[in-house]
Amino acid sequence: MQRQEMKAPVVFTLIRNVTIALLSFISFPFASQALGTAAMGVYNWANTFVYYFLIISRLGIPVIAIRECAKVKDDKEKLSEKVQSFFVLQLITTALSFVLLFIIMFVGKDTMFKGDTWQLIFLLSLNFLIGVFSFEWVYIALDRVFYMSVRALATTILGTLLIIIFVQNDHDLFIYAFINLIATFVTVTLNTLLLKREGINLSFRRKVDLRHLTKSLLFVFGITFLITAYNQNDSLLLGYLDDSFRTSGAYSVGIRGIEIVITIITSLSGIFVIRTTEALKNNDMPSFHRVISYSNNITFFIGAPAVLFMIGLSPEIVGFIVKDSPYWDQVAIDNAILAVVLLSSLMLTYCIHEGIYQQILVPLKREKIYFFTMLFVLIFNISLSVILALFVFKDNPLLAVALVTLLSEVVVLLILLIKVKEYVVRHIFNLNNLKIIVSAGVSLGIVLLIKHFLPPMAHLATIGLSLLVGGIIYVGLLFLFKEDLVYAQIKGVNNGES
User: Fold this and answer.
1) What is the secondary structure of 138-149 as a DSSP string?
2) Which end of the chain has the least Cβ crowding within 10 Å, N or C?
3) What is the pLDDT of residues 197-208, one digit of tens each?
4) CA within 13 Å, CB half, 476
5) DSSP labels, 198-220
């Protein structure tokens, strides 16, 4: 399995996600300025709360479904059986999750939820109720990268336009949430309608049999729930520590750009996991290692400069997002910048650890390692966050939460590297990735030096010019250093290769 075979799907996915990121760079600042810190904090908290029930409804099904459907994708009858079984199971788990959510909402309406957050939670919960019909995992398993790219771009453009038109002030919070629901509905409709085109026929007369996957599903569910708790407990904690939701709102703005980059990189895992699964099925370890090498190469290529430039341009990025919004004071802006600086490294570390889980542990059926790792780190994260927020950084809980999140991620990565060192260490700690880090660091240094001598400009102009100049220097240095990914591509173009 050569790199050339993975080139097209990777390129399509990157184009899709970079475009979506750029559109988010338009819509999110607009929404943040219109809604303000408090409203954004409410939305972030409510969305985080609902996400836990989304995880319950999914039961880890998409992860296992991708692996199992990829194995039989050439046999339409077996594929239909797999899709049918996973779909029925997901219907059941979603119904149970929705009932559980409503029980909690009813019981805790006057105690757990502040203001109108319970109404917002209800609206957001419709996302995962509708999302059960998305069949996104089917298209990932079938490697329908082009279709997913076009569809995602269309729905994102639609959502961006609706936000710009209809979200004007902090009273439009529910409209903002409803727009996101519309995007989900469009995605679900398209995916469901196109199932037959893929030769997949659903019939409830088929027998659903997932007994042989019960253990894997339970482990993946546990893992997914732990990941969610690990990723989201910071937002939940900040929501409870600050009744005004202003700290949570600042945190959500600070971490938004980081989450976008993480999504760009981790979305490639679906491409790579199909290929590592196939390589293991054929007992082709050289191909397995080539996929892992290529995956880490791309992770460093995108992640390393993203980390450094996000830190270096953090004042401009946050300044662009909030602009002159009357809802943002200097304290909130400083907190958002602090979140960016402390958490930017997640764009590299989190993507590496997610790649280890998706591309190595899942195909090897060693999910247990990840489960116990995340369980340990989650307990560590929550305990230390509470202690630091309540007793050490009482005046700034955001600092406590961000520091613990950073430390927790380091712990996760170290444990996983030790556990699977024979599969991944040589693909991470090598000369090629060192060239990437050095090139990213030098390009940022030059950009900051140039920026120092330039007259003050608008935040967006500064960001755009910095990325343009920095990008050219970065790629140029990688070519001079003969870094594998860039050097091969440029030489390939020069030689007339496709």
Assistant:
1) HHHHTT-HHHHH
2) C
3) 888 877 766 666
4) 8
5) GT----TTSPP--GGGHHHHHHH
458's torsion region: left (phi>0), alpha (psi -120 to 50) or beta?
Answer: beta
Query: Which residues in the chain land under pLDDT 70?
Result: 1-17, 20-26, 28-29, 32-33, 36-38, 41, 60, 108-116, 204-221, 228, 230-254, 256, 270, 321-329, 332, 394-396, 487-498
What pTM does this model have? Answer: 0.68
Tell me the torsion sign for CA atoms 459, 460, 463, 464: negative
Phi, psi at 359, each rounded to 5° = -95, -20
Residues 176, 147, 271, 206, Cα dihedral to 10°: 90
Residue type, 322: V
Closest CA to 323 of 315, 313, 312, 331: 315
Cα separation, 322 vs 439, in Å, equals 31
- Cα atoms in the Cβ-side hemisphere of radius 13 Å centred on 196: 3
Query: Contact 220/197 with Cβ under 8 angstroms?
Result: no
CA dist 232 to 21, 51, 415, 483, 496, Å?
21, 9, 21, 36, 47
For 307, 369, 453, the CA distances from 222, given in Å and listed in that order, are: 30, 12, 53
| Number of C-beta neighbours around residue 243 at 10 A | 10
In terms of phi and psi (left: phi > 0; alpha: psi -120 to 50; beta: otherwise), the region of 245 is left
Encoded tokens for 440: 């990213």
Whether the Cβ atoms of residue 435 and residue 478 lie closer than 8 Å to each other:
yes
Q: Please report how many Cα atoms fall inside a 13 Å half-sphere around the Cα of residue 443, on the Cβ side.
A: 27
Q: How many residues does the chain have?
A: 498
Amino acid at 104: I
- Tokens encoding 81: 């059986």
